[in-house]
Amino acid sequence: MNFLEITTVLLLLASFFSIINLRLLKLPQTIGLMILAICLSVIVLIVGIIFPEFLVLITTLTKSLDFSVLLLDVMLPFLLFAGAISVNVHELLKDKVTILFLASFGVVFSTFAVGSGVFWLIEQPVFGLNELGLSYVDCLLFGALIAPTDPIAVLSIVKKMNLSPVTETRIAGESLFNDGIGVVIFLTLLKVKILGVENVTPEGVTMLFATEVIGGVILGSILGYLGLKLVKYIENEHVELEVLITLSLVLLVSVVSHKFHFSGPLGVVMMGLFLNRNIDSDKIVDGVQKAMGEYVYKFWHLLDETLNAILFILIGLEIIPIFQNFVPAYLLISLLTIVLVVTSRGIGVSIPIKILSFYKKFEKSTSLIITWGGLRGGLSIALALNLPDQIGEGKNLILFLTYIVVLFTILFQGLTLNKLPK
Asked: CA 14 to CA 199: how far, in whole Å?
């Protein structure tokens, strides 16, 4: 199948699944699409047992898509930008220290807690997995890729929970920024893995980390400021031009970030905050001052929903090769990993909140909601698929654990999140 045919099939499936969820399942979009994507995977596997050549065709197709590149370089920048332009930027700026502390400490703590825990588990003879040869750095890579939450999944569910504006902004902001920080930590550890621990210096790691973070923030801020001045110059009279400008800027951030090794996710989030729907402009729409015309924000909402639907269909298809390599020992260690991931997330969120609560007010259940609302998604899967082959057979285990955690957080945590005390 060529690119046009693949795109057509994905859009048709996305439309069909969205209609089924809207009319029959009536679940939040993220959860409903994930359930339907799993059903698609099961159907493909069953048909593949009857007609093996069909399963070979689907497996070949998914490998040709290069999901990690498609998500990290194409879909993720658009999804993060769409989330950043809709968050309450005024509340976010008031609480920027809280949000950045939550995002940074939580991701770093989860990375090392989960990585260390998984390394200890696979070293236990009872699982019979120590022959896979996973090193401590390999396990830290898993901790880094599973630490960031999925802002698209989080935002879509949190908006329906009737939380206070402050709490909702804290959750949304933490989810947006921990993606960028998680990718930076992952890429830093990946550099250590590729070069070898013995060839990496603390100064080199610090420089790499600083370049990714500072470079991404500065790039996003500069282009965001220039973009804001440009759309204000247009004065919302030509919304189609504003759409074209925003699309071009998002792609420009991705290209420049890739070229100079900056953090693209942090860059597009920063740019999105400059072009936020709550930024003051000279034109008032529906009683609210906006940086761009309302049509532009509706366009980005449409693009967000479309890409989100396609993303979960792709996740469902990517599951198939992983479960073909299933090992029974994976099941028990995956259950323990879920406990480890959720517990680490809870501790990584609770410590900053305890420290900040001395001079900031938090609602009683903030820590619980942020912990249980830590849904993982396509970013974690893309990073797992991006792991180097030099990890060896252990890569299959990391991929399996990643999928199980993503499925648990989206299906179980996502379905029960609105039952938590507010």
From this structure: 46
Cα angle 223, 146, 170 (rounded to 5 degrees) comes to: 55
Spacing of C-alpha 353 from chain mean position: 23
Read off the amino acid at residue 6.
I
Domain that holds residue 415: 3-419
Number of Cβ within a 10 Å radius of residue 302: 11
Nearest by Cα to 170 from 366, 356, 352, 348:
366
Q: Phi and psi for 167 in degrees, rounded to 5?
A: -65, -40
Which residues touch 158 (CB under 8 Å, ≥6 apart)?
168, 171, 172, 373, 417
Res. 223 pLDDT band, cuts 50 70 90: very high
- 307-344: per-residue pLDDT in tens? 888 888 888 887 787 776 667 778 889 999 999 999 99
Q: What is the pLDDT of residue 247?
A: 95
Q: Shortest CA distance to 134 belongs to which of 119, 115, 113?
A: 119
- Could you tell me which residues come within 8 angstroms of residue 87 by beta carbon, excluding any fewer than 6 positions away? 155, 169, 172, 173, 176, 273, 276
Count of domains observed in the chain: 1
| 292 Cβ contact partners less than 8 Å away, ≥ 6 residues apart | 231, 236, 239, 242, 246, 275, 277, 281
CATH number at residue 138: 1.20.1530.20
Give me the half-sphere count of Cα atoms (radius 13 Å) on the Cβ side of residue 312. 31
pLDDT for 72: 83
How many angstroms separate the CA atoms of 155 and 151, rounded?
A: 6
pLDDT at 283: 46
127-153 pLDDT, tens digit per residue, is 888 787 889 999 999 999 999 998 777
What pLDDT sits at residue 9? 87
Largest separation between any pair of C-alpha atoms in the chain? 68
Our CA angle for 122, 123, 128, nearest 5°, is 65
| pLDDT of 288 | 41
- DSSP symbol at 378: H
What is the DSSP track for 242-277?
HHHHHHHHHHHHHHHHHHHT--HHHHHHHHHHHT-T
Contact indicator for 188, 141 with CB cutoff of 8 Å = no
